[in-house]
Design brief:
Rossmann fold, 12 helices, 325 residues, 9 strands, five-stranded parallel beta sheet, alpha/beta, binds phosphoric acid mono(formamide)ester, four-stranded parallel beta sheet
Length: 325
């Protein structure tokens, strides 16, 4: 177990060793039990987390704020348009100044090609940990909750479990690549076999896929890519079907939305769930586009653990903040 994590940044799970992540998951389990008992350890008393949201959020904002409250600390919500960021104050000065007041700086910035770069710029100047609340490349806090939920159902030894990560049809806007990319990076490190499915135009960033393949090779897990949604469901213990935009193929919104419209049949329905194991879990980070990417019968059905998964955001983030702030 690794205990010297104070001050550690959290931009991607890739920067954390398996041992460090094990510490976090063990602590999250204890904190969840404490929450169930209604007892809260105020170990972050007097500490403040600043949270800058360039993009909207329901779960992430609420779960991080509540995490700070339950740990005895304080959180501050910043909308960039109310900060001097809107007048062009750069990441260096923002991080230097804020890290004189705060014990942690959390950021959501999903703009393709800009979000992760901004987080890294903050990291260079900050004297306190930078926490990624979702960028264009990673959504590490979501994936902590996803893996924690899988452990709750299957136990701590997740080696050999089969996970299907699939693109789904969801219109109206191009969702970030961050969830599928973070899933394929983390899950093989814990021995989970991953099958990733998407239509040809929806490929993920090549350097992320390469790292995911290396992670799988190192742990002995399997990592397959297919353009057939059903294949990712066959014999799966867990499926996480969700939409993302064709960012690598095109960053033009009109072109991207038209590409999404080519694949309305990529929906998670009962027929596809029937291909999975009888005990399988249906997971989704939410918000889900009900009736488009998933049928109500699945998301409200016996395989679905989406609300447990959403609640677990709170518990893993409490563990994260306890360890690094
Ligand atoms: N899953 C997730 O990050 O939800 P929000 O966008 O509501 O924060």
């Amino acid at each position: 177990m690794q205990t010297n994590l104070k001050g550690k940044h959290f931009i991607t799970t890739q920067d954390w060793t398996v041992q460090e992540l094990e510490t976090l998951f063990n602590l999250a389990k204890n904190l969840k039990l404490e929450t169930a008992r209604g007892t809260f350890n105020h170990q972050l008393e007097g500490k403040s987390l600043g949270m800058i949201f360039f993009d909207p959020s329901t779960r992430t904002r609420t779960s991080f704020e509540v995490a700070m409250t339950q740990l005895g600390g304080h959180s501050i919500y910043f909308a960039p348009e109310t900060m001097q960021i809107s007048h062009g104050e750069d990441a260096f000065d923002t991080a230097r100044v804020l890290s004189g007041y705060l014990q942690g700086i959390a950021v959501r910035f999903c703009k393709y090609g800009a979000g992760n770069r901004y987080l890294k710029d903050l990291q260079k100047a900050s004297r306190v940990p930078i926490v990624n609340m979702q960028c264009d490349i990673y959504h590490p806090a979501q994936i902590l909750a996803d893996y924690f939920t899988i452990r709750e159902h299957f136990g701590e030894n997740t080696r050999g479990l089969k996970l299907g990560v699939s693109w789904t049809y969801a219109p109206n806007y191009m969702r970030p690549l961050s969830v599928p990319q973070s899933l394929i990076l983390l899950m093989p490190r814990f021995g989970i076999d991953v099958t990733l499915a998407f239509p040809p135009e929806f490929k993920l960033m090549s350097e992320i896929v390469k790292t995911a393949q290396e992670n799988a090779q190192r742990s002995g897990a399997k990592f397959n890519i297919t353009h057939n949604m059903e294949e990712s469901f066959e014999d799966a213990d867990v499926v996480i079907p969700k939409s993302w935009g064709p960012w690598v193929h095109t960053q033009k919104s009109e072109e991207g939305l038209a590409l999404i419209e080519k694949y309305p049949q990529w929906v998670c329905d009962e027929k596809k769930m029937a291909l999975t194991k009888s005990h399988s879990l249906y997971m989704h980070p939410l918000p889900a586009d009900r009736g488009k990417e998933v049928t109500p019968a699945v998301i409200d059905g016996p395989h679905s653990v989406v609300y447990q998964e959403a609640e677990n955001r709170l518990h893993v983030q409490k563990a994260l903040l306890s360890l690094i702030l």
